[in-house]
Design a protein that fits this description.
The protein is 30% helix and 22% strand. By secondary structure, the protein is an alpha+beta fold. It has a single domain, classed as Orthogonal Bundle (Arc Repressor Mutant, subunit A). Strands 1-3-2 form a three-stranded antiparallel β-sheet. The protein has a three-stranded mixed β-sheet with strand order 5-4-6, with no helix packed on it. α1 packs across α2. The longest helix is centred in the middle third of the chain and has 13 residues. The N and C termini lie far apart (34 Å).
Length: 136
């Protein structure tokens, strides 16, 4: 597993430091999007600015994407293999009002939106709110 994670970082021109490998491993083990605070709790002894910079590095290299789910905290989740975080790769997110978890619904792509002339989409945030299967 560590070799695979190391290759993933190297393939994205990211130096595979111990902390980056640990954070990437943590993210691969999640079935939901996580906040910076969740990651800080998982790595209590790690420097908070290092964790933040790691997430930003992963995001700029399109290893992860961020989600604004309306809670006031950005959440982070792994991108699918081959994702370029372009509008064609956009998918819905589901935020549970009971457990407060946010999930990527990667099998549901956001439909193409025709914008007015001279408008360019750079980001879209599609969040559905309700009750997840576990809480229901």
């Amino acid at each position: 597993m560590n070799k695979k994670l190391e290759h993933k970082l190297k393939d994205n021109s990211i130096k595979p430091t111990a902390m980056r490998l640990l954070v990437l491993k943590f993210l691969t083990e999640q079935n939901k999007a996580v906040s910076l605070q969740d990651i800080e709790l998982a790595f209590e002894r790690a420097d908070k600015s290092t964790l933040f910079r790691t997430l930003k590095t992963f995001e700029s290299s399109k290893i992860i994407h961020s989600i604004e789910d309306g809670t006031g905290h950005l959440k982070y989740a792994l991108c699918l293999e081959g994702c370029n975080c372009s509008p064609i790769d956009l998918h819905y997110h589901f935020h549970c009002n009971v457990c407060k978890e946010t999930f990527c619904l990667t099998e549901l792509n956001v439909p193409t939106i025709e914008l007015p002339k001279n408008f360019e989409m750079q980001q879209a945030n599609m969040v559905i709110k309700g009750i997840c299967g576990t809480c229901k």
